[in-house]
Amino acid sequence: MQQQTRIQGLSWEVDRDGVLYISLPVRFIAFRALVLVLILTPTASNPFHYEQKYMPDPVYEEMGPHARLWRVYLDESQMHDVEMIDDSKDSVDVLLVFAGLFSAVVTTFVAQTSQDLQVASDVIATSLIYELVNLQRAMLSGASSDSVSPSPLTPDSTAPETSSIVWVNGLWFVSLALSLTTALLSVLVKQWFHQYATMPSGTPRDRSLIRQFRFTALQDWQVPLIVGLLPVLMHAAVAIFFGGLVVYLYPL
């Protein structure tokens, strides 16, 4: 006579001879197999296990030119630098393209409105010709030349400055200056990052010291802060441009 019992997925049975048969669930067998695979997997496959990745240093060579310490430092710093440069490079590239296009647009507007700050040469020429015609008429009629009113415009005349024209040109020139500054700083930042990522040849210790020197200089020159200020400058340039556009269109 056989007796079968089941408790929480684990079942067993006893036959008539008293032999015990245990049935294990499939999930339990799969879990045991996974544990064995993880235990038997060599740790050398882990790229962060530097004790397995690099051979131990000889005695008294722990700080030598080819010591494991410098190799580990280069691996860790490379991952940090790649992440830092990739994040900043994408934003700088976008700002550089946008700043170039925006500067071209603002330059077109400034080229038109800046002419209102000075008298056009054709207007001056027309005024002087009109004065000359009046003088000739006075001479033909025998009148005195003093009776002819002089032209109000001369080659040295300046245009009558109105507050709106001055404000429009002032705002747009400031916007153009901020946009060009953003483009210039973006180019400089790209050059800094390119020089920072270019690692010269040499021993691991030399390359580690050079990398640390460049990283310290990058922090001293506040390059991360400059990268963070680039969008602020670009946003300010766009806001000032729209402010000048409102002043320009308001009298219309």
Automatic annotation (TrEMBL):
InterPro entries tied to this protein: DUF6535 (IPR045338)
Organism expressing this protein natively: Cylindrobasidium torrendii FP15055 ss-10
Keyword line: Membrane, Transmembrane, Transmembrane helix
Coiled-coil regions, chain positions: none
Annotated DUF6535 domain residues: 70-250
Name this polypeptide is given: DUF6535 domain-containing protein
Residues passing through the membrane, by range: 94-111, 165-189, 223-250
